[in-house]
Amino acid sequence: MPNEVTRGELTQPSYAAALDARDPLAACRDEFVGAESRLVYFDGNSLGRPLRATAGRLAAFVEEEWGGRLIRGWDERWYDLPLTLGDEVGRVCLGAAPGQTTLGDSTTVLLYKLVRAAVDAAESTSGSRRTEVVLDTDNFPTDRYVVEGIAEERGLTVRWIDVDRTAGVNLDQVREVVGEQTALVLLSHVAYRSGHLADARAVTAAVHDAGALVLWDLCHSVGAVPVELDAWGVDLAVGCTYKYLNGGPGSPAFAYVAQRHQDRLMQPIRGWMGHADPFLMGPAYQPAAGMRRFISGTPAVVGMLAMQDMLALIDRAGMAAVRDKSRRLTSYAVDLADARLADLGVTVASPRDPAQRGGHVTLQHERMREVTAELWRRDVIPDYRDPGGLRIGLSPLSTSFEEVRRGLEAVREVLLSPR
After folding, report:
1. What transmembrane ranges does the database entry give (predicted)?
2. Among 165, 325, 391, 412, which one carries the catalytic annotation?
3. How far is CA 241 from CA 51, 65, 246, 292, in A?
4. Where in the chain is the domain with CATH 3.40.640.10?
């Protein structure tokens, strides 16, 4: 809690209003559908609100591109859209130079592609095959399931980092497990449960010191936390676009492959759109050069439309300003939790240092499952994560400080109500 603010002042509507009045990004909120309502939305880290501009974009696409150009659209724009839009994601959010990012498939499928490609290409300094994949026990389920499945397919060993669920993987833990047999390390930049923000630059360097590759899951980072994949020397990354990039339900994920690795990695799902000459329809597969080789089937063009408006908004606001707003929102949520919920037995199950925290905060209490259900009935929408975690996802460009105050006050009201 800020030293100059009393606990009583912190919880007042006037204090939240003052924070909103001083917020340089406050006007961005008006650009989102539903932001004018009284509903409290604490789940922007699972599904972002749509932008008002997106309705016009979708309508124009149906009338003009799809309806007007029909199949000509593939030659005019759609065929290259996974790569051109991938470059825009890379420029605005990933710190990635052109030619290293593509859109398409789900996060799960892209994880499979890149994990398989990485472990199949991994060799030790002696030329022998590397046989271990490292990840942590609290990584997102998809990441764990994909790695376990590939380990079974390829006869690999999974090395687990056991982590504190209120924190996340740290540099010392990575250094303890990587070695001559490590093929790949797969970690989340922001932990899905606690919001812990990993030191990606330092961890990447440690993995490289062991001669291995690193793959970062950026699902809870992209659009909320500045990412510098090129500067950090990252090898591979994946992430979704329906959270802080507001691409809509099931919008395509993205994959990043550093330029230095592209021509030696062979992704396992060979499809016609990743062929060097897709319309040759030849008898044998020949991978395209560059990032196109990581595309498999026909891309989901409609699913790529909505995120374009959010990318433009983030670009206009600037990632530094977005991160600053995110830190202030989550810090306010932590301060309110201390002031209004600690006496009810609620604990903060996220890092307290905002520099070590992404865009969400998890509050722990044994009743949080039932509390979440009741909050939904009251139009307060967080999400629940076992064990006993109420997760507050604060999308910086669409969330106000007053919204945070009302939402945390609603949590207190529900906890005080009879069961």
Report:
1. none
2. 391
3. 14, 22, 6, 19
4. 77-313
The residue ranges of the chain whose pLDDT is under 70 are 1-4, 124-126
Binding residues are 107-108, 140-143, 217, 220, 242, 272, 298
Q: What is the pLDDT of residue 125?
A: 60
pLDDT tens digits, 260-300? 999 999 999 999 999 999 988 888 999 999 999 999 999 99
**Exposed/middle/buried for residue 145 (C-beta within 10 Å: 0-12, 13-18, 19+):** middle
To which H or E segment does residue 158 belong?
strand 157-161
Q: Which of 29, 113, 243, 357 is catalytic?
A: 243
Catalytic site residue from 217, 235, 309, 383: 217
- Name the superfamily (CATH) of residues 7-52+318-416: Aspartate Aminotransferase, domain 1 (3.90.1150.10)
Catalytic residue among 32, 41, 112, 140: 140
Q: Take residue 111 and report the two structure tokens written for it.
A: 């994880």
Question: What's the CATH number for 77-313?
Answer: 3.40.640.10
Residue owning tokens 């309508």: 59
- Is residue 140 annotated as part of the catalytic site, yes or no? yes
Any catalytic annotation for residue 391?
yes
Q: Provide DSSP, 205-240.
A: HHHHHTT-EEEEE-TTTTTTS---HHHHT--EEEE-
Binding residues for pyridoxal 5'-phosphate: 107-108, 140-143, 217, 220, 242, 272, 298
**3-state class percentages of the chain: helix first, strand second, coil last, to nearest 5:** 45, 15, 40
Our answer to whether residue 164 is catalytic in this structure is no
49 as an active site residue: the answer is no
